[in-house]
Amino acid sequence: MTSTDAARTEIESAVHDVLDRLQQTWTANDPDAVADLYTEDATLVMTGVFLNGREDIRKFMSDAFAGPLVGSRPHNVPRLIRKVGADTAVVNSDIGIVLAGNDGVAEGDERVATWVLTRRDGHWLIAAYHNCPVG
Q1: Reported CATH class of domain 3-133
Q2: Domain residues of the chain, as ranges?
Q3: Which residues, at least 6 apart from 67, have a Cβ–Cβ distance to it below 8 Å?
Q4: CA gyration radius for the chain?
Q5: Whole-angstrom Cα distance, residue 66 to residue 76?
Q6: What pLDDT band is residue 6 in, cutting at 50, 70 and 90?
Q7: Helical ranges in the chain per DSSP H
């Protein structure tokens, strides 16, 4: 454990764990494992997309991994993690998608995301996600 890890609060550690698992499951192009990181009633909002519920997210990711996002990986760097209750955190992060064969997020495709994470039955899950283009 690094000194940075030791300085993290329980919620910060939980947030990083969820986002690390998202990185791993996305990189594996596993739509079921990605969807399982979301609550049953989660919402996901992106330009032109509104998904309501884990099953919508599962279907969307399955189609994406079979098509335009095959071999992709997410880029996600948290800017701010805020505890807003014993079982809730809001995260703002710099995000993007690194497409197969690329070394980084394509210029102009950088985004800022807001995540709401919640603890349910002892497990931290994503309850809401929204992203928008940067500047």
Answers
A1: alpha beta
A2: 3-133
A3: none
A4: 15
A5: 22
A6: low
A7: 3-7, 10-27, 31-35, 54-66
